Amino acid sequence: MAYDYDLFVIGAGSGGVRASRIAAGHGARVGICEDFRVGGTCVIRGCVPKKLLVYGSKFAHEFEDAAAYGWTLAPPTHSWATLRDNVAKEVDRLNGVYIRLLEGAGVKLHMGRGRLMDRHTIAIGEETVTAEKILIATGGAPVVPEIRGREFAITSNEAFHLPELPKRITVVGGGYIAVEFAGIFNGLGAHVDLVLRRDRVLRGFDEECRTAVHESLKESGIKMRTEMQIDCIEATNGKAPFTVHTQLGGMFETDLVMYATGRAPNTSGIGLEKVGVQLDKAGAIAVDEWSKTTVDNIWAVGDVTDRINLTPVALMEGHCFADTEFGKKPRKADHRDVPSAVFCQPELANVGLTEEEARMRLGELKVFTSAFRPMKYTVSSRQQRTFMKLIVDAATDKVVGVHMVGDDAAELIQGLAVAVKAGATKAQFDATVGIHPTAGEEFVTMRTARVEPAPRQKAAE
Questions:
Q1: Is 78 a catalytic residue?
Q2: Suppose 284 and one of 190, 197, 267, 306 were both cysteines; which one would form an S-S bond, judging by CB atoms 3.0 to 4.6 Å apart?
Q3: Could you say which of 110, 335, 403, 436 is catalytic?
Q4: Buried b / exposed e across 150-189, counting CB within 10 Å, b at 16+?
């Protein structure tokens, strides 16, 4: 059978765009569809606009520090509308860049929601196309729990477009999106309540780093409402102020409630069940190590597979798929030692194993830590501190985990990720000359391992 395309991609986010461009570069006839804007979560409503907001929110602290360095400033004021609109302009620009990238690669863009009609047929609106191979890259979306008054809450999707910045904002959640937006709103001058079910933020990250971030958020003025769940949200005449009721009977007022309690793969309404593409227990598309689904000619990459939900991982998965299927260069995506960052304030970044994971997998470790006030703040007297951690496999001397909480953590960890990926040893870290004075030199000057607790003695039988 002659198909319209060799490959058709459903979803023009990071993974889908990368896969389509690489496949086209290998000579494939490629089509792609998108029902909103090209660029996906990261470009349109995630990483890029969020980090621009982080930059904007940090200036409040910079102005405070400047006084200690001799700068005299009039009390600064902030325009939320200016920041919001300038961020939106950059998103518009990037949307255009992505469209031009597809055009330049020879990929045909179809605007509309793609739905599988059978294993080789895709409907986009009233249009129907066929393809020999299909890639699903529909990403994920934020989820708001089914509580009374949920219609009064927003998610990160809407946070970028607020008509004005409320004075009191409640962020619900303890993950990276929640702590990032808590820092943004706090830096822009709002009173922020952070509501989380557990005792600390960022479950799944290194325990000491979690604690460092949690304490920093508290010291910055964010009210940490730990071990709390929201029962309902009430509003007078359907608008702010809102009364938030907790499950233990407490209540407090706020002007905005933003939920950041999780994201779910975008799998509904695209015909997966019609063609036999199976989902895993978490509701994500089940794939093998080659990103292939349970249907032979259909693959999936990115957040819709819920493996590691990071933009660079989606790019890697999409690139590997295209090289394997169209470039005669079979290769699997390598999900080991993927670096990541949380753009909270201060930043957290890491690569490799947490101490807890390393103890379970490797046994005996050498752990090196450093905590200090950055030089910049010794003059301004800001109390923010930096925490660094190296985790070393005692048997091989390999550095298996690098963690940092502090300014520019993501930039530093990106470079160290190369060392971890290459299997660098602690001896090689020690042999590296530091750049002085920098925070980064601490990673190559940690000489004394933390004293490990004595192993527990088994009780006599």
A1: no
A2: 306
A3: 436
A4: eebbbbbeebbebeebbebbbbbbbbbbbbbbbbbbbbbe
Q: What is the CATH number of the domain that holds 56?
A: 3.50.50.60
pTM of this structure: 0.95
Region of 417 (left: φ > 0; alpha: ψ -120 to 50; beta: rest) is alpha
Q: Mind listing the pLDDT tens digit for each residue in 51-86?
A: 999 999 999 999 999 999 999 989 999 999 999 999
**Within 10 A of 436 (CB to CB), how many other CB atoms are there?**
8
Q: Check whether residue 280 and residue 399 sit in a common domain.
A: no
456-461 average pLDDT score: 47
Cβ-proximal residues to 284 (8 Å cutoff; 6+ apart), any chain: 265, 267, 304, 305, 306
Residue 450 lies in a domain: no
182 and 194 belong to one structural domain: yes
Give the pLDDT of residue 79.
98
Q: pLDDT tens, 398-421?
A: 999 999 999 999 999 999 999 999
Clarify whether residues 248 and 295 are in a common domain: no
Question: Sheet harboring 168-172: ordered strands across?
Answer: 223-225, 191-195, 168-172, 256-259
